[in-house]
Amino acid sequence: MARKKIALIGAGMIGGTLAHLAAKAEMGDIVLFDIAEGIPQGKALDLSQCGPVEGFDAKITGTNDYADIAGADVVIVTAGVPRKPGMSRDDLLGINLKVMKAVGEGIKAHAPEAFVICITNPLDAMVWALREFSGLPHNKVVGMAGVLDSARFATFLAWEFDVSVKDVNAFVLGGHGDTMVPVTSYTTINGIPVKDMAKIKGVSESRIDEIVQRTRSGGGEIVGLLKTGSAYYAPATSAIAMAKAYLGDQKRMLPVAAYVEGKYGLDGLYVGVPAVIGANGIEDVVEIELSDEEKGNLKVSTDAVEELLEACKNLDGDL
Ligand code: TXD
């Protein structure tokens, strides 16, 4: 069987890390695309030279030409511009919307059969835009945020309870922003609900609230420390888990930004929900029972996503 092909649009911090992880796991041959000349080629060469040391067989190439992503099975998009001092969220939205237009058209022309994972921020709006511009079916375009946000929640809970991260099953719903909804009622330590575990360990409710808050601002905490960029190791590994679920038809149920129509009272919106990923892309969106408070929090989050989409739709005419 021929090797799978993985195209990475954006060869920045996350793009380079994605290429390394995908190569190391021998997921397939890798094409790194960027508009910056030399960067994808240089990173591809450097990463290729990891092969003999790490013992992987993967052809890694760098390019500035969309034609080279032809026939990709998976496309992961990190292309875009991060926020700089003095820039408003709308400025970022406008710039990255233009980037999504170029990327969406490139995918449409050269890799229309691919499973597309968007990582670019503001995530829930950019995955919507990428789907619009690429014209791919909704089940083949998905956003990565929930796997990362849940991993952050799980990390902090494992630290607090002094247990292995492997035993924490954390759950985050909603948009990828300050309004995301870490759902403690569905978060367990090997089946033991967080509330019960907190009682057993003598951890107060307010301490759990602090952990929820730290999860919500988990990206900002890292930006504050790095100063010149945002997180890239955990975002990359999260997207790789999603790509593997698709390539291996694993039917994994992961929190992802999926297109939701009908469920959760939503009428066609990309937002973080538990969804099953298999060979057909997003095969199911799972609607879970929520308390009134959780429903209220989810509404705040989806309203924020809807507001961003409105801004996108208004800008779209200017593109
Ligand atoms: O959970 C999540 N979804 C996220 C999202 C977690 C962390 C970071 N998240 C976002 O991912 C972040 O806000 C950015 O929007 C993306 C990519 O982050 P990264 O850290 O990789 O950014 P870089 O290093 O700036 O890389 C972006 C690359 C850079 O090499 C640019 O030259 C390139 O994107 N770029 C383009 N490539 C192709 N085509 C176009 N038009 C283009 N414009 C810029």
Automatic annotation (TrEMBL):
Enzymatic class: oxidoreductase
Catalysed reactions, as listed in the record: (S)-malate + NAD(+) = oxaloacetate + NADH + H(+)
Domain Lactate/malate dehydrogenase C-terminal positions: 148-307
GO MF, any single term: L-lactate dehydrogenase (NAD+) activity
Family note: Belongs to the LDH/MDH superfamily. MDH type 3 family.
CDD domains: LDH-like_MDH
InterPro entries from the UniProt entry: L-lactate/malate_DH (IPR001557), Lactate/malate_DH_C (IPR022383), Lactate/malate_DH_N (IPR001236), Lactate_DH/Glyco_Ohase_4_C (IPR015955), Malate_DH_type3 (IPR011275), NAD(P)-bd_dom_sf (IPR036291)
Highest taxon above the source species: Bacteria
Domain annotation Lactate/malate dehydrogenase N-terminal: ranges: 5-143
One Pfam family of this chain: Ldh_1_C
Organism of derivation: Aurantiacibacter luteus
Protein role: Catalyzes the reversible oxidation of malate to oxaloacetate.
Residues that bind NAD(+): G10, A11, G12, M13, I14, G15, D34, N96, I119, T120, N121
Name of the molecule in the record: Malate dehydrogenase
Biological process annotations from GO: lactate metabolic process; tricarboxylic acid cycle
Gene3D superfamilies with a match to the protein in the record: Lactate dehydrogenase/glycoside hydrolase, family 4, C-terminal (3.90.110.10), NAD(P)-binding Rossmann-like Domain (3.40.50.720)
Residue positions of the active site: H176 (proton acceptor)
